[in-house]
Design a protein that fits this description.
single chain; 5-stranded antiparallel sheet; elongated; 9 strands; mainly beta; 59% strand; 4-stranded antiparallel sheet; 1 helix
C-alpha cells in the first residue's frame, strides 16, 4: 500500500511539473504587400502589388539599399525569441528581427543591383 501511495504521489508531482513547463508553438504570417514601413537609398525602390499580395524590391544598376519592415504583435507571455521565415523570388535578402515591448519587427534587407519579390513573411514563437 505504501508503494502504491508513493507511486501515485510521484506521478502527480511529475504531471504538475510537466504542465508548469508546457509551452505552445504559434505562427503569425503577413502577405508581402502588408509591410509597415520601408527605407531606401540609391536607385532602390519598393513597390506594393496589392492584388498579388507581394512587395517588390528593385535596385537598378547604380545599386543602393532597401529595408522593408513587417510588424508583428505578440501576446503577453510570448517571445521574445522568434524564428522569421521569408518567402521570396529573386536575389536573396538578409532577414533580421528586433523585439521591443511585445512587438517584433522583421526587417528584409536588400543591397546592390537586382530584384527581390517578397510573397510572405512569417514568424514562429513559443508562448509559455
Amino acid at each position: 500500500m505504501k508503494r502504491l501511495l508513493a507511486t501515485v504521489i510521484t506521478l502527480a508531482l511529475l504531471a504538475v511539473t510537466a504542465s508548469a513547463f508546457a509551452q505552445t508553438w504559434h505562427v503569425s504570417t503577413r502577405l508581402g504587400s502588408r509591410y509597415g514601413s520601408t527605407v531606401t537609398t540609391g536607385s532602390c525602390r519598393v513597390t506594393r502589388q496589392s492584388l498579388l499580395g507581394t512587395a517588390t524590391i528593385n535596385c537598378g544598376a547604380a545599386g543602393g539599399t532597401a529595408v522593408v519592415r513587417y510588424p508583428f504583435s505578440l501576446r503577453a507571455g510570448c517571445g521574445p525569441t522568434v524564428n522569421p521565415t521569408v518567402d521570396f523570388v529573386g536575389t536573396s535578402p538578409v532577414v533580421s528581427t528586433k523585439y521591443s515591448d511585445g512587438t517584433v519587427a522583421v526587417g528584409v534587407h536588400r543591397s546592390g543591383a537586382g530584384k527581390t519579390i517578397i510573397s510572405m513573411v512569417s514568424i514562429s514563437y513559443y508562448c509559455g
